[in-house]
Amino acid sequence: MKTTYLKEFVNYSARKIAFIPVGTLEWHGNHLPIETDFLVAQKICEILNKKIKAYVLPPIYLGTDKERVVAGKKFIGMNSRFSKELQGSVYYLKPELLLLMIQGLIDNLVKQGFTKIYIVTGHAGSKQVEVLEEIEKNNKTVTFLNPYGQLKFHVEHADEYESSLFWACYPEHEAISRKIKIKNDDDYIKFVGYDPREKASLKLGNKILKGMISTLNKKIK
Q: Is the pLDDT of residue 60 over 80?
C-alpha cells in the first residue's frame, strides 16, 4: 500500500482534488480474486491521476447490492442467482449505510480543503450506482465516475470482459488465473455455460481499459 506522509497530504489538500476508489470484496468465481472490484477501481484512479495530480484514497471495499427474495429467503446480489450464500462475499452494507459512510468521508475531505472529489466504482451493481449517483446529486464537490456506464457491450459479473479488464489492470494475474484448475461443476461455469477464461484475453482487456480511461478523462478537470 502506498504511504502518505503529512507533508504529502498537505500538498494534496492544496491541490484540492481527491479520488475515492469504491468496489466490493465479493465472489468472482474461482478464476478471479474476491478483491477484483476495488482493485480495478484503484487502478483506474491511479491512471486518471496521471492527468490531474490528486490524492488517491485507499479503496473502499464495502458496497451495496439489490436484495431479492428467492423461495422465501433473502439473498444479496449474485447470491440470488444461485439461491445460496457464495463464499467470499463479505462486502454488503445497506444502501443507506453506504451512503452515510461515503458522505462522512466526503465531509471530512471538504474540511481538509478538498473542493473536487471523484468517486470511481469498480462494482456496477444497480443499487450501488444508484447510491453513488445520489451522493453526486447532493454534493457540488463530487463527480461520480462509472467506468461501465458508457461501454458498448454488457459486462456480466466475472465474465470474459471483467476477467480481461482485471488482467489489463494487473497483467501478472493472467497467468495465475489461467493456471487455476476449475471443475466442470464450478458455480460460475454452470451459471454462464462456459469457462470465461476461454474468451478472455489481455488484448481485449487493454481495449476495454483504454476505452474506459478515454471516456473518464473527458469528465475530469
A: yes
